[in-house]
Amino acid sequence: MKYQPILGNVESLLATVHDAAATGKLSASAARHIRTWLTEPSYAEYASQVAEHIQKGLWAELDEVFWQVIPFGTGGRRGKMYPIGTNAINARTMGESAQGVAEYVADYVRQHEPGQPLRCAIAYDSRHRSPEFARLCGEVMAANGFQVYFLEGFRSTPELSFAVRYKKCSCGLMITASHNPPEDNAIKVYWSSGGQLLPPHDEGVIQRVMAVREVRRVDFQQAMAEGKIVLCQEEVDAAFQQAVLQQRRPGPRELKILYSPLHGVGASAVVPVLQADGFTQLEVFGPHASPDGDFPNVPGRMANPENPKVFDPLIKYAQTKGFELILATDPDADRVGCAAPVRWTSEAAWQTFTGNQIGALLADYLLHHAKQSGRLTPHHYVVKTAVTTELIRQIAEAYGVRCVGNLLVGFKWIGGVIEELGPEGFVLGAEESYGFLIGDHARDKDAAVASMVLAELAAEAKHTGQTLYQKLLELFARYGCHQERAFSQQMPGSEGMQKMQALMNRLRREAPGQIGPWQVVLVEDYLQALCYKPGQSPQPMPVHQKGDMIFLHLLLKTEPENSYRVAVRPSGTEPKVKFYLFAYQPPKSAEEIEKTMQHLQNQLASLQSHLEEYINQGNTSAK
């Protein structure tokens, strides 16, 4: 961006900003950040746009994009795109992010790995401005002495994770906002392991990003000519696909598959892998096929396989064309959802599966095959987050393998466990939000490998006369019926941040003894690593990592054999608090499973209503 002189007198603009803050049109923090962007030389190229907003009196817009410095969350820096502002994704905040990463990683390598070359892999998805932001990051990393391996064209997040490892990079940058709305974008930062940043590197990077004043850049084409930026997409594509195909298992491949990339990058990863694995009856759903950051043909323009409505047009088409499995991946192809017929009859209804259900099906399939082949040992393990179904733990224990299952939300923690325990015994990483990893080619969730294994599982089930849904009912009959539900409370803006903190503090200091008819029998606080029964002294609780998450264990006196739980946590990437609800009933006869599923879902719906009432009471009292 070229420098544009400020239209009008700077002192006059500053006085106008001061008056706006004094009259409540601007928050004090927004006014402070705006003054910086008007007066500091490092922000000079944006000053004219800030001035124009001030002269037009766009105070609501200015407050929204300047009230805070956009934070790093569980996966990086994510938010709405806007040309200016500290609380928006734009060229400045992207540049600051890359500059901070470059400085931190370079210092770390010089101190702990002297003599090692500085390398960075960069990729981007199909969102608006993703190519532009990726090239900007490449310019910044090259200017800071990094050899940049650049994946030109739309690529998946797991391929970026793979590229970091494959090219022996010090770090990696992925430009994507995953399944967020079209107006969002983000930068995800990866360590040399191929996993997202873990302590202490996450805090170290954040500190450096927040301290950036000057963003150093070189021209992209000049850096390419000098060999500082290397395009390597064909090489990495081939290596990535071969690494994923290492996880294929023998078995039938007679299955008609409908696949949707939801206007994202999945066709570059999922399609070639499925075809190479022998699934020849594969069609990409036409209305979702083209990469498009507006996600025009997706219900609500929310390209998220967690949303069952995404599958409505897919199921309608599949029923008319005789498809037997639907797979859908989010825009950066690291999450996958699926739908399949309930029975093998032409009139059968279709079922969409939750991330918890997919994870359980994958765990059982992988462990079953490992045991059959004689390769399964007690040293093998599966990994899941604390808010992912406990059915996975039960399956793992039944096969005699370990389950690491008390991790904070975010796949980076799963990647960290693989590094900690070693990839040799790793079987599956799973999180309820439709993220799965099989194999050691990456350290982040991968929809390509999960899609391939899911297709193999569905084809094998079909060969034995079963559907995926019937396989799931089998698991419930064997281990007990697990049902889950999740909902969120949106809390945007500066007031929303205060509400989120107030809610967590209230739960932490004055946990309710009762939620509707449910009695709270145990509280687990992951931030303080404490657990306690209401009215009793807290006791230390082992946690893999401390974080802002609270579990409430509940008892319903009319159903003493059943267990209920609630997990509460602020989102690390969006302005909302997330609630995860769990219900479990011990094994009953197979004939009762579907009735039990419906009963537990009804109970969770009731529990959600009581929780919403509790939240609203707190908001009212806070006012």
Biggest β-sheet: count, sense, barrel?
8 strands, antiparallel
Span between N and C termini?
Answer: 44 Å
What do the pLDDT scores average to? 94
**DSSP helical segment count:** 19
The shape is globular
Q: Low-confidence parts lasting 5 or more residues at pLDDT below 50? A: none
C-alpha-based Rg, rounded: 25 Å
Helical proportion, percent range: 40-55%
**E-strand count:** 23
Instruction: Please identify the structural class as seen in this structure.
Output: alpha/beta
Strand content: 15-25%
Please supply descriptive tags for the structure shown above.
alpha/beta, six-stranded mixed β-sheet, single chain, 623 residues, 23 strands
Polypeptide structure, described:
Helix 7 (157-166) crosses helix 10 and helix 18 crosses helix 19 (593-622). The strands form 4 sheets. Strands 16, 17, 18, 19, 20, 21, 22 and 23 form an 8-stranded antiparallel sheet that branches. The protein has a 6-stranded mixed sheet with strand order 1-5-4-2-3-6, sandwiched between helices. Strands 8-7-9-10-11 form a 5-stranded mixed sheet, sandwiched between helices. With 623 residues, it is an alpha/beta fold. Helix 14 (391-398) links the parallel strand 12 and strand 13 (402-407). It is 40% helix and 20% strand. The model has no long low-confidence stretch (mean pLDDT 94). The chain starts with 9 loop residues before the first helix and ends with a helix. It is globular, with a radius of gyration of 25 Å.
